Amino acid sequence: MIRRRLAIVALAVMLPACASGRNQAEPAASSDVETAASSAVADLVPVTYDLGLPDWTPPPLEPASNRLNADKVELGRRLFYDVRLSANLTKSCASCHRQELAFTDGLAVSPGVTGDHTPRNSMSLANVAYAPVMTWGNPLLHSLEQQALVPLFGQEPVELGMAGLEAEMRRRLEAEPIYRDLFPKAFPDRKGEISLATVVRALSAFERTLISVNSPYDRYRYEGDVNAIPDAAIRGEALFFSEKFECHHCHNNFNLNDNVMHARAPHPEIAFHNTALYNVDGKGAYPAENTGIAELTGRPEDMGRFKAPTLRNIAVTAPYMHDGSITTLDEVLDHYAAGGRTITSGPNAGVGHDNPLKSSFVPGFIMTPEERADLIAFLTSTTDEQFLKDPRFSDPWKQRR
Question: Residue 119 is part of which domain span?
């Protein structure tokens, strides 16, 4: 089965996963989808569009075939919040990516238009422009242009449910006067066509502008404002980057993760980790619906390996972990302090600490109440309130509802 799935991934190229990163069993049988998929490119260049970045922040990269411009970004913002991109006109991209929650949705897993649920937690879109791979567990999904096709057309599970409805989507968008004005401005090179290809490019353009670099911690660490965070957060930073707690090994760059690529570091840093969240058979197994990149690679040693998410805005992105199975930051710290979670009953019962496949950076540690409080203070200091309220990223249709 895994060989069949890998062959499908190779042939379909751009439709290998649902938004949660799982493999899709069959590619969408649509030439329009295939044309849009093939447009994802590797010819990345530094973003020159004004993202309002402070001097210390490296510019992200973008495809040379999909350069940012103001009209394309505005078009993408409208599409991001538009329920016309769902089969039954009830959901949009923003349904699973809410600005006030750093573009997560506050749910363990997310419902689609048919009631199907994603097997994985909705990842934050903060600084997704810097990600060399998308989603929790798909090493083959390299661009936002690729990823946008997945919630639109994926069928395991169904999310927006637009498979087979590409012509209907175009009709809906063509009927909107704002779109008849914006598409030509955003895509003069394509004569303003309203198509799946331009929809995917516009969505990706908007998502690349979702930059979060103005937290109190940023002002303290990168801009020299020694009063930006409390003493507890300063102590927590020292603990976070210490060898006692090991946090920094998986959350070590300016985006507090270890999957990053940008103009100053154009060679992608990509990593996936088993954090001993499960050990259902005593040999390291994870629940069958969530086995990490092993689902795609077929390698036993990849069982349970997932991408480390950014810790920016982590205080507002609960619940945590790839399946949303940990509800608070305190519980996250308990998990790592134990060197793996113990589940005492039910189908997923097992002692994570004894998982033979877990990362060497999850050995466990002893943590005092004061250290716990300081770590929480540090993590909370990464909340970028401006990002959570920035009108550039907000719903532009609100006044019409």
Answer: 2-211
Residues 6+ apart with CB under 8 A from 236: 374, 375, 376, 377, 378, 379, 381
Domain harbouring 233, CATH code = 1.10.760.10
Strand partners, 45: 62
**Helices 166-174 & 177-186 angle (0-180, nearest 10):** 100
User: Which tens digit of pLDDT belongs to each residue from 340-351?
Assistant: 999 999 999 999
Is 56 in the same domain as 161?
Answer: yes
Q: Are strands 44-46 and 61-63 parallel, antiparallel or unpaired?
A: antiparallel
CA–CA distances in Å: residue 326 to residues 6, 113, 249 = 31, 25, 21
User: Do residues 194 and 183 touch, judged by C-beta distance below 8 A?
Assistant: yes
Out of 178, 211, 244, a domain closes at 211
> pTM (2 decimals)?
0.90
Number of domains in the chain: 2
What pLDDT digit, counting tens, does each position of 264-310 carry?
999 999 999 999 999 999 999 999 999 999 999 999 999 999 999 99
Per DSSP, the residues of 255-320 read TSSS-EEETTEEEEE---B---S--TTSSSPPPTT--BTHHHH--GGGTTBBPPPP-TTGGGS-SB
